[in-house]
Design brief:
CATH superfamily: HIT-like
Distance between the termini: 38 Å
Bound molecules: adenosine monophosphate
Mean pLDDT: 90
Shape: globular
CATH topology: HIT family, subunit A
Strand content: 15-25%
Structural class: alpha+beta
Amino acid sequence: MTHRLALGRTAYDRGMATIEPSIFTRIISREIPADIVFEDDRLIAIKDINPQAPVHLLVIPKTQAYRNVAELALAEPELLAAMISVSQSLAEEHADGDFRLVFNSGDAAGQTVFHVHAHVLAGGLEESSLV
Ligand code: AMP
């Protein structure tokens, strides 16, 4: 199966057409299943398979051109803004509207999937903890 469409135009512009599809790209292309809670032309949101909070969603750009939030912010700040807007809407839909947004950036910060994504944590979080 080809992943050409799922990788997005930006990846092609950079000549990255042969990169391995990430787990999230494979979810976006419906190659593997996930619990999808939101989707539009640029973003998808799914329930995290290993939730760390009562509500734990992942908001993911459909392009896998950016490994982390810093790369995304430099190249497409409006796409980052769209991720935050969708995160707010999802926190209102799935919890009381309050939420914590986490972007793990790098191995030592616990990042395991190098296709930028926001963790949306909500639904009654500890006040004194960030994790
Ligand atoms: P990070 O460690 O910040 O890269 O986050 C990756 C997240 O993806 C983890 O919280 C995983 O639980 C989650 N994850 C990995 N595979 C899947 C999957 N197939 N469906 C939903 N969430 C996943």
